[in-house]
Specification:
Strand content: under 5%
Helix content: over 70%
Radius of gyration: 22 Å
Structural class: mainly alpha
Order of helices and strands: HHHHHHHHHHHHHHHHHHHH
Number of domains: 2
Mean pLDDT: 83
CATH class of the largest domain: Mainly Alpha
Largest sheet: none
CATH superfamily of the largest domain: MFS general substrate transporter like domains
């Protein structure tokens, strides 16, 4: 019997829910570390006696570290398993965060953030992959969105933590906690988080597979379970073979636009609002509410992807909501300047922008078979970091050029339209069939030839 058949027939057993919950907790660990730097910068700037703007180098270096981890380390999991890379990644980024407390300069702090970035890049794609591999096919989009919700929730937790820690003990102490808390989460989950049962089956580890299958569905008693279909060739090259080239390129464009959207909007939204005349407290609150909207949008759209016949096509709702919210925000800032309207529009802006970005992550998680899933996720996420690098720089350049608030906000429509077009094209060209439906693919010559 195929392992994926057991998982699909079990629906979502308590054991599967437990494994997915542990992945969400590990996602929280990543979110705590990833977003801690932003909250610590004002305090660290005072500590080092330099301008806060100078810390952009540390942010850029961290993103480069993430690209290294995503492209070079995360794919190793396709050969050695998900657990090893998740654990190594969390340990590495935790050590990088805690070392910040002892650094004497911005240069050494940037090195620490590079190390942390490498760890984040190694761990995150494999957290998504592991959760998806314990989810039945008809729930994979929802589960992937929930894991992303865990990462965002970890970032919100860091914000709550920062309000008390930074004022009392400084930004360096916040960075220490951003390293310690993920390590605690890792240690608490260590004995309980299982390896991917599909990965174990692909390696012929029948005893381990039988033990996990018995917990997923006690009625199953087989001596051997077939794993996922093998993918010939090197993992990176396999992303472009057997009809996957078009799918891979579209996913890369989608992920690039998604992260560009997120970094452009959420790096500068409070600044854009204050330059448009909104009070500072309203602008800061708008930033938090946009994140909340993103959490709602990510899970909501992921759920609709699984539950509607339109599937992936339903995700275009995200960009449409974002564009409408942006246009209304521009109108409000140039006219009525209603603070309550700015806050509500920020929620819908986050729902649309982060919701669409979440959908891109979900699609990339489900687009590749188990044998190359970590490779596919790692490379797609690595390419997306290029968008993350460009967005703050472009926003800063527009601000330095004294662009109007309307211009600053309207520029963001371009990448939003970009992700909308790629989402629609993906649905039309590739439909809702993905490499996770391996029984179907086994009978087909290429993915691109599967009927929508």
């Amino acid at each position: 019997m195929r392992v994926i058949t057991v998982i699909d027939n079990a629906g979502l057993s308590n054991y599967q829910k437990w494994a997915i919950f542990l992945c969400v907790m590990l996602g929280c660990a990543d979110g705590i570390n990833s977003l801690s730097m932003g909250y610590a910068i004002p305090s660290l700037a005072k500590h080092f006696g330099i301008a806060a703007a100078a810390f952009s180098i540390a942010i850029i270096v961290e993103l480069i570290g993430q690209m290294v981890g995503l492209i070079l380390l995360a794919p190793i999991a396709d050969r050695v398993g998900r657990l090893a890379l998740i654990r190594i990644g969390i340990i590495v980024f935790s050590v990088g965060a805690m070392a910040t407390y002892f650094v004497p300069s911005l240069a050494t702090l940037s090195i620490c953030r590079f190390v942390a970035g490498v760890g984040i890049g190694a761990a995150v794609p494999n957290i998504f992959a592991l959760a998806a591999e314990y989810a039945p096919t008809h729930r994979k989009s929802t589960v992937s969105a929930i894991v992303l919700l865990g990462i965002t929730g970890g970032g919100m937790f860091t914000g709550l933590l920062a309000t008390g820690i930074v004022s009392a003990y400084g930004g360096a102490m916040l960075m220490v906690l951003a390293g310690v808390v993920p390590l605690v989460i890792l240690l608490l989950t260590w004995p309980f988080l299982p390896e991917s049962v599909e990965f174990l089956a692909s390696k012929g580890r029948d005893a381990d597979v039988a033990r996990i299958v018995a917990r997923i569905d006690p009625t199953q008693h087989h001596d051997h379970y077939e794993g996922p279909l093998a993918v010939p060739g090197a993992p990176v090259a396999a992303l472009f073979r057997q009809g996957r080239a078009g799918r891979t390129i579209v996913i890369w464009i989608m992920m690039f636009c998604g992260l560009f959207n997120s970094y452009y909007i959420f790096s500068w939204l409070p600044t854009f609002l204050t330059s448009g005349g909104a009070p500072e407290n309203v602008a800061l609150l708008a930033g938090s509410l946009s994140t909340l909207g993103g959490m709602i949008g990510g899970v909501g759209l992921g759920y609709l992807m699984d539950k509607t016949r339109i599937g992936i096509g339903i995700t275009v709702i995200g960009p449409i909501v974002a564009i409408v919210a942006l246009l209304l925000m521009v109108w409000n800032l140039s006219g009525p300047k209603n603070d309550a309207a700015s806050l509500w529009l920020s929620v819908f802006l986050g729902l649309g922008v982060l919701g669409a970005t979440s959908c891109a992550q979900v699609i990339s998680t489900n687009a590749y078979p188990v044998a190359i899933r970590a490779t596919g996720l790692g490379w797609a996420s690595g390419v997306s970091r290029i968008g993350g690098l460009l967005a703050p720089a472009i926003g800063g350049a527009l601000l330095a050029a004294h662009s109007s608030t309307s211009t600053l906000l309207l520029w963001s429509i371009i990448p939003i339209v970009g992700i909308a077009l790629t989402l629609v094209f993906y649905r039309i060209r590739f439909g809702n069939i993905s490499d996770t439906d391996e029984d179907h693919l086994a009978a087909e010559p290429t993915i691109d030839e599967v009927a929508v």
